[in-house]
Amino acid sequence: MSGVFEHAVATLRADTDPVWPVRKALPPNKTQHKRALSAEEVGQLLNDFDGHGGNFQTIKAFRLMWLALSRPNESVQAEWVEFDLDKALWTIPARRMKARREHIVPLPTQAVELLKAMHPITGHTKFVFPNRDDRQRPMADAALRQALKKLGWATKYSPHGTRTTGSTRLSEMGYRPDAIEAQLAHAEPNSVRRTYNHATYLDERRVMMQDWGGKLEIWKAAAQAGN
Hints:
Keywords: DNA integration, DNA recombination. The protein is mainly alpha-helical. The chain folds into two domains: 1-30, no CATH class; 32-226, Intergrase catalytic core (hpI Integrase, Chain A, Orthogonal Bundle), CATH 1.10.443. The chain is 54% helix and 4% strand. It is built from eleven helices and three strands; from the N terminus they run αααααβββαααααα.
């Protein structure tokens, strides 16, 4: 309801938002879609998304987001120049990162194979996942949310919850918090430690992300077998 009044204020159709004081007084709603998914739920989600018959690019962008544990906008706006597939590395420039620092992402073989499959289709464009109506722009991350709504997942999961799930599951798999945080590009306030992390954790993150890619395959296969 407050969104209606916010729009009315923005378009000068109302002077104030009467819902705002009530909304501020209420405790924040911890929505289900931002919680960490279980392994079974991840498998079912990936299986549902792959098989829903939607846009090919949307399916692949969603899969890349999960394989790299990247933010939705980082995935859908990915540029071909950022990838070194021979080294299985994705270097996201500072201008596209939330913390405004370059981020190096080690890619599992599943992500490399996905990108190699995409290259004959969109390799001649700037973006891995170009906009359907304007190939000079990337696709919008709203496409992911629209697909999830169609599949009935919108109330249970948001693309922004992917990284919460990855962090939780990788911790359960025994990986060190520092390596997980480095993969998620969470800000490190100490510049010396940040440099150390960058140099030290890349090899560990390579192993971790390959393990992660394998787990996603296992969980998805289990969901397929159970359907």
